[in-house]
Amino acid sequence: MDKRFAWQLAAVCLLTLIAALLIVSLISGVDSTPIALPATATADAAAWHAPDIHSVDTTADGRLILYGRELIIHTATYLGPRGSVLHLTNGMNCQNCHLDAGTRLWGNNYSAVAATYPKFRERSGSTESIYKRINDCMRRSLNGTPLDTASREMLAMKAYILWLGQGTKRGSKIKGAGIKELPYLDRAADPAAGKMVYTDKCQSCHKEDGQGILQPDGRSYQYPPLWGQHSFNAGAGLYRLSRIAGYVKYNMPYGVSSDAPQLSDEEAWDVAAYICSQPRPAMDLSHDWPHLAAKPIDHPFGPYTDTFSERQHKYGPFAPIAAAKARK
Fold first, then answer.
1. What are the residues whose beta carbons fall under 8 Å from the beta carbon of 81, sequence distance 6 or more?
2. pLDDT (tens digit per residue) in 237-252
3. Longest pairwise C-alpha distance within the chain
């Protein structure tokens, strides 16, 4: 082989090798150490994930499940003040509180319902069925009247909720279920500070007066009212500060995810306090919590088995109440 040609060939090979190394470096980075997944990604991988709605067949059972999902998403279209089936609710949708049709992690999802109901609940002092749980939402969160338990609408919502919980084991702890808890503040939550958070982060969707934004057809809400006559009443679970603070921390403003929240813990507690300081429909709660010692420390209405004020039970600080309860 001609020596000059051999040197040229060697040079070409060397340049090719250098180019290949540069490409690998650009793709994988100079540091060849494996990149660890963030803790949140690992946690999400271990969390509950909703089954694929497209896997539901077109049998009678499948159609009932799909109708149940439709009712969760568009409750008011069927059951609201201008509903096509009945007029039972305030115009909000179940999905306004149970996000993404009850499938979002830490978005008050339905993942644990199939594994826990029938269930004894201290609020009623009785063992409750799924029918009772759904109708509690109808009466409290939707400030309406109960569904007939034999109605197609009730059976459809039950079918959908049970379908979501397929495969969950009775009594199992499901990661990502319900609402994620926040640590208590070392002070009371501040409605005045919360108003500033609301103005900055929430007002664009829920409006200055908290009345939300209706869909163009006027039958349901695109963004629900957070107080006033068309919002959830004082008996709803989200009227407890710990519930709504955890809910907004990991789901609001609209578009955030639980692994990348936008609000600080203090902002979440304070904006929750502002929302809960506003007027809303009342409800007869005289039959709730028959065993007073089981009443949550942030339940905003007495009587209580301790000496802390109703205001402290509503806004905190909650740590002293929790400590006193633990000593009993």
1. 87, 89, 90, 91, 219
2. 999 999 999 999 999 9
3. 103
Q: Which of 210, 241, 233 is nearest to 282 (CA)?
A: 233
Q: Which of 140, 141, 118, 113 shows the shortest CA–CA distance to 128?
A: 118
Tell me the per-residue pLDDT of 115-148, one tens digit each, with 9 for 90 and over.
Answer: 999 999 999 999 999 999 999 999 999 999 999 9
Can you give the C-alpha Rg of the chain in angstroms?
26
Alpha carbons 249 and 252: distance in angstroms, whole number: 6
The model carries a pTM of 0.85
Q: How many Å separate Cα 66 from the centre of its chain?
A: 21
175-193: b or e for each residue (b if 16 or more CB lie within 10 Å)? ebbbbbebebbeebbbbeb
Q: What is the CATH number of the domain that holds 117?
A: 1.10.760.10
Instruction: Evaluate whether residue 221 is within a structural domain.
Output: yes
- Across 26-146, the runs of DSSP E, i.e. the strands, are 119-121, 126-128
Helices (H), ranges, 198-240:
203-206
Q: Please list the residues that pair with 214 across neighbouring strands.
A: 221
Structural domain containing residue 222: 191-327
